[in-house]
Amino acid sequence: MNDITQTLARVLPSRNTLWMLVFFAGLFALAYGFYVATQQANYIWHWNRIPRYFYYTDTIKVRTEIAGKVASITHKSGDAVVIVEGDGASEFYTVPGANLRVGENETLYMGDVIGTYDKGSLGLMAQGMLITIEISIIAIIFGIVLGLFTGLARISTNPCFKWTAITYIEIIRGSPLLVQILIWYYVIGTLVNNLLVTSGLPQIPEMWFGIASLSIFAGAYVAEIVRAGIQSIHKGQSEAARSLGMTKSMAMRKIILPQAFRRILPPLAGQFISLIKDSSLLGVIAIRELTKATREAVTTSLMPYELYFVCGLMYLVVTFALSMFVQYLEKRSVE
Amino acid sequence: MIDVKNVFKTFFVPHEVQALHNVSYHVNSGEVVVVIGPSGSGKSTFLRCLNRLERAERGQIMIDGTDVLDPRTDINKVRMEVGMVFQSFNLFPHLTVLENVTVGQTSVRKRGKHESIENAMTLLNKVGIHEKAGNYPSQLSGGQQQRVAIARALAMDPKVMLFDEPTSALDPEMVGEVLEVMKTLAREGMTMVVVTHEMGFAREVADHVVFMDEGKIVEVGPPEHFFTNPTHDRTKLFLSQIL
Known about the structure:
- The structure holds two protein chains of two kinds.
- Chain A is built from ten helices and seven strands.
- By secondary structure, chain A is an alpha+beta fold.
- Chain A has a four-stranded antiparallel sheet with strand order 4-3-2-6, with no helix packed on it. In chain A, strands 1-7-5 form a three-stranded antiparallel sheet.
- In chain A, a hairpin with a 2-residue loop joins strand 2 (68-76) and strand 3 (79-86).
- The two termini of chain A are 54 Å apart.
- Chain B is globular, with a radius of gyration of 18 Å.
- Chain B is built from nine helices and ten strands.
- Chain B has a six-stranded mixed sheet with strand order 6-7-8-3-9-10, with helices on both faces. In chain B, strands 2-1-4-5 form a four-stranded antiparallel sheet, with helices on one face.
- The A-B interface holds A 234, 236-237, 239-247, 250, 254-255, 258-259, 262 and B 51, 53, 76-77, 79-80, 82-84, 86, 88, 90-94, 103-104, 107-109, 149, 152-153, 156.
């Protein structure tokens, strides 16, 4: 009897294994169900067309701008330099890769193709991705600085600093980010650019109003995280520092903030992951970040399913990389 | 060295308590004073008022000729001369033992790095934990941490050392090592004010024992008199409860 139960225990999957199987079965069922649904809707998948939204090559044609004769062709480190002479004028054209369509002494008319070469470019979504990353990095840096000072002002005993911080935090946290972005662009942006134009200065591009809205939004949340982090450090730490004769700011810099930093890293990471995702709203003020770029790609290609999936995946890649980086920082600072 | 005159201190949070009520006392240079009393008697508050961690609301506190309560006094100058050791050690957990002892020297005393480290190693040697200089406080036992805290305070070359129940948070077997360091300090002539429940230490080391209750100094005397023949009934009751 005992033998049988032991054999059964070995053959049958354990309770955990069983539930893992249930998980994967559920996942598969979901994916399959979705696939069947798209089949019903007669959607034709074109995953092979996705890469061109990241990188594509174009064939560029080099044309002559004057009529005349090919005077000489010289090869320089893989490129060909073609000199065209005619009617007392002379022009030279460089064709990379030396894929020529003309020979020496050939007669050319204006607009004739001298040669072609392939040029690789970043696709729409890759460009959007870069803009998203650029905006996020700048906004995170400003957000940290702003949040740090606001957090310190928030716990200051100076009423002016304290009330300024509270007012800022409450206004920003109490209104939707989308509305703030619109205000930054349509209200503050117009006012600032009007002023700049009337004083003869160049205008500020919309991207900077987008960055401002994101930084100021993140700064308010970072301030609260910083405040909570500082207040979580035991009072005895600042007492010990002050009893050594340290000034308030010295104790803050040398004793409190380094300890608070470790505690605020995880919530800070969460905040910045939110910021990266929130940058998708900047499309409304004509910043061509990843989501806006995807929407443009969808309008021209009519491949919404693939493109939106890829778009979401790209955000996942960036946020995952950020959270890995923060985990690394955390590990390093614990040592 | 320390002169306290008619000091009052009231706490309003969480409820109104008269922590110090007309306290006056004088400590000479080189004296060791042990303050005892039941919990809530104001002995810790008294100690914390001396370096203005708590600000007394009335009275006068002079430390080495400087008026602590005068708003024009640079309190950080006073605190440089007054070392403090806490019940819960309050070592800086993000710094190594050595850095704990050097951070005050370099940032407050403005000493060079080399000199600070040399000084710190001498002091860590004195309290018997120089071999742990590179460790973090969390890797040390309670007794070792408290000895580092003493070295940290001594590194500022203070004229006075304040001890706020330095052995109360320790396991019993570690009390001895901390008291031993304090005894050495006392023998070297350091001016010390010690709040403690260690009656053996008071008997052996104190020049004067101060008994406080309900924010007042009830009785002061040399230890032999204090422990064998106390005058006040309140003192007698307290001693009978703890001895």
